[in-house]
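User: Sequence in, structure out. Go.
Assistant: Echoing your sequence, followed by the structure tokens.
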Amino acid sequence: MARMMSTMRALNSAMTLILELKEAILQTQSYKLHFLARIQHRNNEIKLISGSLMNYHTDCISNLFSNEFTEKLNWDSQRKESHAYMVKTGIENVTFNQTKLVLTYLESGNLGGAFQVLNKIPNPNLFLWTAMIRAYTKQGYYAEALILFNEIHAAEIKASPFILASVIKACAGLKTLQKGKEIHCYTISNGYESNVFLSGALVDMYAKCKRIEFACQMFNKMPQRNVVTWNVAITGYAQNGYPEEAFNLFHQMQLEEIKPNLITMIIVLRVCASLRSLQQGKEVHSYAIKAGYDLDVAVGTVLVNMYVKCRNIEDACYLFEQIPERNLVSWNVMIAGFAQNGKPEDAQRLFCQMQLEGIKPDVITWNAMIAGYAQSGCGDEALKVFDQMQTLGIKPNVVTWNSIIAGYAQNEHKDKALKSLHQMLLSGAIPNSVTVASVLPVCADIASLHHGKEIHAYMVRCGFMSDIIAGSALVDMYAKCGNVEIAHNVFDKFSRADLVLWNTMIAGYAMHGQSECALTLFNQMQKENMKPDHVTFIGVLSACSHAGLVQKGWEHFFSMNQVYNIQPQVEHYACMVDLLGRAGCLDEAHRIIINMSIQPDSRIWGALLSACRTHCNPELGEWAAGHLFQVDPDNIGSYVLLSNIYAAAGRWDDVAKTRILMRDRGLQKKPGSSWVEVKNRTHTFTAGDTSHPQMKEIYAMLDILGKQMKLAGYVPKTKFTNHDED
């Protein structure tokens, strides 16, 4: 009896102490440490108490880790102190407390602490494994999440659908198709094949691994599909370069009476923007109004972006004004819209207005302003904004530099574009694939193979060789620099070339007169089920033109509409006129122009005029020149061509009239120029220029080459030479 009374007194004393501890936690840090010291002082007494006391004690420590307490205290350090106390008192090994510890660490984002506790649990249950894997996946530690899943699998624990969903998400994040397929097989073998949640995750995984055909199969096999699954499938098509299919899926979704939600609207409107399809965008806009989604700031912002991308700046501006609470993203979209549509002044006005309304610009806003000025050819203004943002302490990012470089490149300031790249590297900014794709065309335009090779090496080091856009620019650079063999080697390294890459390689072969290679590549492209577009046929028809393949050219021209449902555009007619003109079929060239369903432009008239010069047809040349002077009156090359045609025909009065017409219109022929790169330096030569420091040596070599050409039997064609001079 006495012993029982003693035990009861000890229990009451311990319970009082525990209550004091809970009260202390709710108060100050000093009180908490004070009572922890008292607990440690009576630790031996507490250890003698029965299992009832341990349960009370466990409950107290569990409460110590509950959300109610963690929200009131500065937790990370105190959680660790409490964990340390549990270790000292010997109650850390109670499974319930360990579970609480793991969950508490996970809630705070301390994955390391959670993992340490998990390692001390002999046989973690499925609930803990699920929590751990979900937390790792949520924070982007995809590889670690897969390692944890492997431990479950090794322990022969059957994974739940919740675990598998997180693991599939990890595979999608890592873009590891093989592991994703293994998990897919695991879901089937464990009877989860009909699970809508898992099926949606698998559709997303296959789409992110660039295997849209597998994603499509998975989606079509699903017995039930909710709005989330439809959104995943639509996003998958859009992100893999199939915007038309994404929009068709949106229609199918409605036919199956699945109501699109807010997320659906945002996804589909982005698809319409990528398609530049105003009609489809308006259709979705109408649906958003009926469903009441247009009042949402996110939907309103995406609508503005859609109208901007479709170059309907007036409607975009109207919608922007209707957004009830415009946020920074909304302002950025509208400012970028003005900038992209060649209205930098309006962008500047909005830029000032947003600051007056208390919205502080971020680096995206500044980038939009810089891009607007740069793309409009206002390089000085772009640089002023660039300097201003740095003065205000906003550090330019890679997008900022890309805007500067692209602006220079698009406005024919090639040297400044390369200089900006150098400055970008000095600033510590790291060029990305977009930078590379902007600079490579500059190297191609100035035929700087050395710089192009340097960028190629950089792409290899940084892993950009899998980027299709940068890869296409690299192929184009090598082709334009005259090294079509390396261009093809780069092309071959892409296991899944897209249409742009195919078109670039076909055009590269056509450019160098390797028509057979171009047409072979076109046939190979069709065998690989890659559907050609209008750009493809420009390369194909150009290849036929260089090789004089008139019949083949006609076949491909007619197949555009009859086989591929592609309406010929001005560029295709220009290729056909050039093909027929080179082959001397001037009557056919004349006939095709007369029967055109669209208005001929300067390219078509120029091709015909050039053919008339080659084949000495002054009458048809006059007709072509008359139209050419109307559509492009300031192109002096056209006057020179006509003058030479008259000269070849001995019509000297007409030569004089043409020269007078040139003078009356203030036209003066610019001297021809060419350049060559030697030992990493580009040398430019202009007709009649003697300023090059090695000019004597150059002319001496030209004399030697001229004599060797004569000895080889070469006779230059000079009938037009004298008439090209003013």
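User: And one key feature?
Assistant: The mean pLDDT is 81.
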